[in-house]
Sequence to fold (1163 residues):
Amino acid sequence: MAKLVKFNLDGREIEAPEGQLVIEAAKDVGIEVPHYCYHPGLGNPGVCRLCVCEVEGAPKPQMSCRTAVREGMKVRTDSPVARRAQAASLEFHLANHPLDCPVCDQAGECHLQDYYQGYGLYKSSVREDKRHKQKRKDIGRAVMLDQERCIQCTRCVRFTDEVSKTHELGVFGRGDRSVLDVYPGMRLDNPYSGNVVDICPVGALTDKDFRFSVRAWYLDKTPSLCTGCARVCSIEVHTNTRRPWHTDGRRVARYKPRYNTEVNRWWICDEGRYSYKSADSPTRLKASSTLGADGHAVQVAPADAAARLGSELGRHISERGADGFAFILSGTLSCEDLFAAKQLISRLGVPASNIVLAPAPEQLGEQDDILRRAEKVPNLYGATALGFDVSRSLDRLKAPLWGAWVVDREAPAAFKGLPFTVWQGPNAVRFTSEARWVLAASHTVEEKATYANFQGRLQRANRAVESLGESQPDWAWFGAVLRAMGGDFPHQCAGSVFKAMSAAEPAFHGLSFDLPAEGAPLVAAEEAVR
Amino acid sequence: MSLELSSVKADLDAFCGAPLAARGTGFDTVWTVPAAQAHGALERLKSRHGFNMLADLTCVDLQGFGKETGAPSPAPAGARFKLVYRLSALDPATGLLNARLALDAWVDGDAGPVSAGDLFPCADWLEREVWDMFGVSFSDRPDITRILMYPEFVGHPLRKDYPIKKRQPLIGPPDGPPRERLTEADLRPRIVE
Amino acid sequence: MKAHESRSYMLNMGPAHPAMHGVIRLLLMLEGEHVLDAEAEIGYLHRAFEKHAENDPWNNVVPWTDRLNYVSPLINNSGYCMAVEKLAGIAIPERAQYLRVISSEVSRITDHLTCVGANAMELGSFTAFLYLLQAREELYRCVDRLTGARVTTSYTRVGGVKGDMPADWPDMVRKAFEKVRSTVKDADGLLTKNRIFVDRTRGTGVLSKEKALAYGITGPMLRSAGVPYDVRRAQPYLVYDRLDFEVPVGETGDNYDRYLVRLAEIDQSMRIVEQCFAQIPAGPIQSPDQALPGSKMSDLGKRGMTADLLKAKADVDPTLEGGARCGRDSVMAPVPDATLPPKEETYGSIEGLMRHFEIIMWGRGITPPAGEAYQAVEGGNGELGFHVVSDGRDRAWRVRVRPPCFFNMAGLHELLKGALVADIIATFGSINMIAGELDR
Fold:
């Protein structure tokens, strides 16, 4: 624990750990110091010259990202000298900046715009033509480069050097000819390339996928979770409900990472970043259905579906026995979903060997030491904590099966002919058209749900958009069928399910549904699993 | 402004039994009266202090005030609607304003105070508009009906929980179920008995 | 003739009726030709102005205000912007204040010309109507030159007015006033001593002082009843305290007095405008640099060829938001987060473009502190008040329009009780009910 020192910042007496950077200490007390090149995860080179502060005793203005807090120092970030220096630095950065705001995606979240309005507001003295560089340069799978807009803060260069360690980007040339570019022959193709778009303070590096889709100020932001792998990174879901025609009706516009100290810090991988497309893809199920006598799907309202399914399933179980029924559950089910599934399973009497909880085999992933985990079951720890055996293999199923309830994953081809099958999930797969019952489930962005990642950290996803059509959360389906079979499941909202779960399951004791933004460890959080 | 408001305030404080919260100066003076005593205050102001014109009566819905900006809501706990009575003390001979005054009255739920229709006849229409737009009712007055919206309108449009793009149920034509489009039969002239 | 049994019956007048200005419905209880009672049903032109004002940024509400009293749109523009400026604590430049006064008075003249003309037409005098509309046409041309539109002017912004008046505009207006004066003289000659007109308007629609005050009636109706209440005198705003004008007052409060009051007010408004032209602080010196059309500036700027763009003079359409630099500072308050930069800066420098964006984008732009403000102006029909409530966002929390027509119409049934059916037309015409303001 570093020693706390007292120093004076903008006329206020502040206590901060000794050695903390002035810019960080200012942020902790709510004072914003404009900056470009500094990033807590990427070091502090002090090249942008914007974070100027006046330190008493120093003859020249200092960079607050290069100055550490000392006992008794007096710092002013808002003195006339500091403000003039900030405005001058801005003017230099803007001297060759193209007039791109109308066509630049960054408008609305651009630090040049915001800092000019906040700290600049000077009259431009540029009377010359601006220097021209390459625009619209495709440098990678996900990223578009516009060299004119770059202010050479080198955040992206440091990212590819220090975080992704792929060394693709660099600044070439000097003076006002310096350009950001990929090294000759290279492309920005690492699995974390999308992050450079987040850290770029201007519109030099923009997301090719998001390019020209919708303006940033029309977006609503909801904190949520990525369910791509067992890390369960914290994300922000950006939704566009105000200008639906800009994104062709797609409600979710993009995912952005959300800072989480223990899980993903400032980054997410590209696979997770672009997994938002499933929320509004044409494969989304909007209504539940059953196969009619003629083999065609007949739409059924949710309440009806649960009742009829429950009675049919009950009949089959009593006639053929629960040993021939299997639950093939996707790994993307949340704790609430699994808790409800547990209750349904025990009511039905399905043996534990017939519960398979895993993503489809073709979803095994790569692992690296940055973020990605090979384990693609996001709620790994939660499932284990709830007593599920997370197994990949379908060989453990007790043959012969007469029926299966498949949740959000592809089923083996052999399941097609089974007498009673249920498919439940948000996005249809091949098996969806073959299953006897199809239940439309809502997507993660439409639910309040908790997931426990491989570190044993329980986090909560929030609802960014309303459930599409008649889809319901998975726990609501399990619960409705349970009720139709005479069981007890009184919960109407995820919070209520969580409360029951926290009371019934030892791993969740004492936890509240209102988890902190960065989540909280499960009670029995031991060493990371696998 | 020739009327000295401090003596008016003292009188009103005495009438209401407690000093009224005040803000603004001159023609922008605003006093907060309890809704239950609003009618009495208006009557007093009219009869004793020469406020002879009710310039305006309106309502403000403060549900969700300051949610995005963090600004503190002026509403006392539990109150949602605020009625604003705007009075003028006009000198009929010179046409000059002796004073202007606004009275804020916080409404309990959506049951407003006694109607001011007996003091100022224009209050009838003003209260109808407040009811129509906000659902705040007034007592001791003939049945309150909608004034700007049509009678079959459902809801109170200026409330903050009424979304601006909300659709209303279809009504009419009178001789059948509501139809989205008029048919040829509707457009032909009919003889009505 | 034998005595017949007589009964009162209900006659429905409107909402679609040639004599109903706009759409409004009058339910009349008649006994023969006498009106026993009248009830007005309004709301046919309700377009949710107040709801829209809560959903659009502060400046975006100005086009909605055009559509309130649509025969005097500039008064509504000014009134709304003044209320927001009061809330935000913005003081507008003096030249902008004069421009608002001038434009408001021109609007007032068009309002009165329309009212008197329509009233006369309904009583049979089509000629007076067309004469007065010809005069109004001249004024509309002037308004068009100034704002870019005849009726939907959207001239003011929070912080000032959209653009300065062209250099030859005062002469254009003076010429129009010559036409107005001669036309009003003609109409006066046709109507004021006209037997038919006087018989139909004298003694009909009588409004007493007490009734007027009880119903909150203001404007020409109150003044015709003998109370010289005019917001420009009672609570002066803009530069009215420096201007010399009379407030015409009637005696009996009948339709004829209202007609006379309106004609006199047209005269007074012209007097005010002429004083303003004399008093208005000088505009900027127009620089002799060559003018570049805005589209060309924008093109060059986008391609980074910004050499000398900031020095250039923009030749921009007067309807284009932001306008040219010359004259900018004299008509827009220098509030950087509320007013758009001039086009030379928007197209010619990245700083101007960014500032432009920072004002337009949602969540940015003018954000008055949380609070309320009420600003009353003298509209064509009386005290037009704007009560704005802010919670600190970039859009209003609540905008209430105190519509003078509303109160005039609330008292209509008092004027019609005991009148003849024929008097309804005369009375209703002289109230100058504008559905846009009544129903909002």
